[in-house]
Specification:
With 623 residues, the chain is an alpha+beta fold.
């Protein structure tokens, strides 16, 4: 009896010793809350040091703002060509490997490195989470994805070291989470995306088996992202009873950090309520699918084009085609759908516990969750196989497939009974008007070798007479008085984009310090004469860069104009037409001025419900 008892005691002591040794080796004891941060640095770190900036906020908050050892932050750093963390962390981080850094109230340590791999691969995510939760056990866990986001189709991240495997699709995120389940299949207290455009119903549905809450933005995020000086103390005081009020404070801190200077959104979604919402949405679109035939396509297309879009879609950047879920359903519903629509509203209120916006968006339709619905980006809509495998609603996928099929067929059609001729008539028919999305004024300029360059498309003030004739009610453009938008005295290609009763916005294609970008022009109550709000850089046609980049002194801006092509299928070919080095405010002053001497053409472009462009006869002008 004594020997077996002694053996049990020895085994118990050995187990305790092993546990203590393991904790010492791994670098941290069990804490109340472990926060995993999957930090894909990308160009945000290489060029702009934004990851380092947020790490500095985390360090500062851990040191100065908490007085307990409840929180451990475990970060995986990768996906960037150059880290700038030496002064911040006191550690040299190599871009040739993946580095795991652990931050507690007492210390910062480079805990371990992994073999180089893409942050856009599910195995990288699962390895990080498996090793991290084993070494840093906690009562509760949170997970933040830090980088670029491009919604339900494009997914998360942009690893600049692996051009063939840059992003995590929604399916890959779920694969990574499934293969690294928390102990006893526990759920994350929350999964957050410090990234653009990731508050979507598809993402919420897919993550519902793995987390209790989703915290994410419907709109683009500013480069500074979340306010970690507020997030860290809140998580250090985490208790289940504080939820969801604690998450609402995270939202409030984010919105307050940007005041009225940015158009920002952030929402908190209770994921156990999402399946019921998805079922309601699925039933709604099952009904819409039955009604979707070629003769009704215009109704659906118009509803989509009028619903709230996110990601700043424009002629110069199609974007990821995310739209507000409730606004889309409201605009698409027929009177017979009132019961289905009421159910969606009820389920949405149960799921979205907090949705907040900056003041500039307070009048916009922002419900807290978006939905992918193709509208502007036809090239993306032609390759949706990965999206169809993300685990969302089969009935909704059926609707999208049929919608895309009809869109492609209509777009590829050279002519139709609605628009039979290459040139629009002087008076539009009723059928043409019903199939019109928007009408724009177009200015062309002839080069010395005979080519025509487009100086943009401006839809401000353009209306139709009772007889279907296009007219321009803008005093500055009536019968075209040889004036166009200038920046710093230089004529620019200005493309009207999103607008409402409070603001009017344009994009201007440029190279900003060698990077393809758009300048964002804004006219509003504060800036009635127009202002350059900053620039939006392009990563590709699906991934917008984070936020709007301010123009700084000595930035080099090359103004671009596309060659005019009346054929809808011709590739866009941009030509440099002028350049500046920003030095003074006057270099970016927006004015409506007379164009330089030259040969011009002025006319109108009608964009139909398939996104095709149809032009009136152009009038030639010499100046």
């Amino acid at each position: 009896m004594i020997r077996p008892m002694m053996k049990k005691i020895c085994n118990l002591l050995f187990s305790l010793f092993t546990l203590l040794f393991s904790q010492e080796l791994n670098g941290a004891p069990s804490s109340s809350f472990t926060l995993f941060v999957y930090m894909n640095g990308s160009n945000l770190e290489t060029t702009h040091k934004l990851a380092t900036s947020d790490i500095r906020e985390i360090l500062s908050a851990m040191k100065d703002s908490i007085n307990n050892d409840n929180l451990t932050v475990v970060m995986l750093l990768g996906g960037t060509r150059q880290w700038h963390t030496r002064d911040c962390l006191g550690l040299s981080i190599s871009s040739d490997s993946l580095t795991c850094v652990v931050i507690t109230r007492q210390s910062v340590q480079k805990w371990r490195t992994f073999t180089a791999g893409s942050m856009g691969h599910s195995s990288t995510l699962s390895q990080f989470l498996r090793v991290g939760q084993s070494a840093f056990p906690a009562a509760y866990y949170g997970l933040i994805f830090w980088n670029h986001g491009s919604g339900s189709v494009g997914g998360f991240g942009y690893d600049e070291c692996y051009p063939d495997d840059r992003s995590l699709s929604l399916r890959e995120i779920c694969e990574g989470l499934e293969s690294s389940r928390l102990p006893d299949n526990k759920k994350f207290a929350f999964i957050g995306f410090d990234a653009c455009l990731m508050a979507t119903l598809e993402i919420a549905t897919s993550l519902s088996p793995y987390a209790d809450y989703l915290i994410a933005s419907q709109e683009l995020e500013p480069g500074g992202g979340w306010d970690y000086r507020s997030v860290i103390p809140l998580l250090a005081s985490y208790t289940p009873s504080a939820v969801p009020d604690l998450y609402k404070k995270i939202v409030r801190s984010y919105i307050n950090a940007y005041g009225g200077n940015e158009e920002v959104t952030l929402s908190v979604t209770r994921l156990n309520a999402v399946p019921a919402l998805t079922a309601s949405v699925e039933q709604f679109f099952s009904s819409q699918r039955a009604a979707l035939v070629p003769s009704t396509f215009p109704r659906f297309s118009k509803a989509r084009s009028q619903s709230k879009s996110f990601g700043m879609p424009a002629f110069t950047f199609s974007g990821p085609d995310m739209t507000d879920l409730l606004d889309l359903c409201n605009r698409m519903a027929e009177p017979s759908d009132s019961g289905l629509l009421c159910d969606i509203r009820t389920r949405l209120r149960e799921a979205v516990v907090c949705s907040s916006t900056s003041g500039s968006l307070s009048h916009d339709a922002v419900c807290g969750l978006s939905l992918y619905f193709p509208c502007y980006n036809l090239s993306q809509a032609r390759s949706l196989e990965e999206y169809y495998h993300c685990g969302f609603s089969p009935d909704y996928f059926s609707f999208v497939r049929e919608y895309v099929r009809q869109w492609q067929a209509g777009y590829a059609s050279v002519s139709s009974s609605t628009f039979p001729d290459k040139v629009l008539p002087d008076a539009l028919s009723t059928d043409m008007i019903l199939h019109t999305r928007k009408i724009y004024a177009v200015l062309l300029s002839q080069t010395s070798d005979g080519r025509w360059l487009s100086y943009g498309m401006d839809g401000d003030g353009i209306t139709l007479t009772p007889h279907g004739q296009i007219e321009n009610t803008s005093d500055s453009l009536r019968q075209w008085n040889r004036k166009w938008i200038h920046i710093g005295g230089k004529t620019v290609a200005a493309y009207m984009t999103f607008s409402d009763s409070r603001s009017l916005n344009y994009t201007v294609p440029v190279l900003l310090n060698g990077e393809r970008s758009d300048l964002i022009l804004r006219y509003d109550e504060m800036n009635p004469g127009g202002v350059v709000a900053g620039a939006r850089r392009h990563l590709n046609d699906q991934i917008p860069d984070k936020g709007i980049t301010p123009i700084r002194k000595n930035d080099r801006i090359v103004y671009l104009c596309p060659e005019f092509q009346s054929d809808n299928n011709s590739p866009v070919c941009y030509q440099p037409v002028d350049s500046i080095v920003a030095q003074k405010k006057k270099d970016l002053k927006v004015n409506l001025l007379s164009v330089p001497s030259g040969t011009y053409r002025y006319g109108y472009c009608l964009v139909d419900l398939y996104g095709r462009r149809h032009y009136t006869r152009f009038t030639d002008f010499r100046k």
